[in-house]
Amino acid sequence: MESQSGCRTPESRVSNNDPSQQALPFGGARVRTFFNFAGHDNEELVTRLGESPTGFSATWLHGPRGAGKSHLLQAAVHAQRGYGVRCLLLDAAQPDAVRQLTETGEVHCLAVDDVSGLIGLRRVEVRLYERWQTLQRSGGQVIFADERSPLALEFALGDLASRCRSCQVFEVQPLNEAGVRQLLQRRLRDRGLTVSSAVLDYWLTRRSRAVGALLDDLERLDTASWQEKHRLTVPFLKSVLEP
Fold first, then answer.
1. What pLDDT shows up at residue 151?
2. What are phi and psi of 51, to 5 degrees?
3. What is the residue range of 186's domain?
4. Are residues 157 and 49 both part of a single domain?
5. 185-213 average pLDDT score
6. What is the pLDDT of residue 38?
């Protein structure tokens, strides 16, 4: 709901008590689920990741940065937790990833983003391989995501290489420009915001077109628009996104 000035009134704001707003242990203010994933050409992958666990499975997602791999990984963990599965979600780019891999107790789903960050050092690969073996014996799940496929990586441990290359591999298909525009317009409408074609053109010309980066921009614009009661104009975008 908007006021006569075009700015949203408090009634248009989502309640902070809404459980759908609780974040997973990755960046971003909203839970990333399959429901709010925008990649329309990844139906088979989404179906696989959202299935109820029925035994050991190993899945590898790869594709360019910004294609939605992190979103899918978090959505998969969200879905598996909904089935009561204990999950370990790691970002291999984070400095404590190896510690978490080593010290976290028994889990039944291991999901690792940017997994190549754990590849190349034998001692780390041994820990990853041990996790794999435990999950395979218990009928758990392994889900890895990276820009490269397992065939394109150089492993230090042959046993881990063979396991990873036996994964069911999916190439995540990114949204085209029309899809990106539709996604942003839909997410803006969901928040009671509108944007002109000129402002959208400016946004997409001056900022990264990776979906994750654009949705981060949207979070910043949503917060600033609410606080300042301001429409989304080009000068406002400049002030918020290009300080």
1. 96
2. -70, 150
3. 10-17+175-241
4. yes
5. 83
6. 63
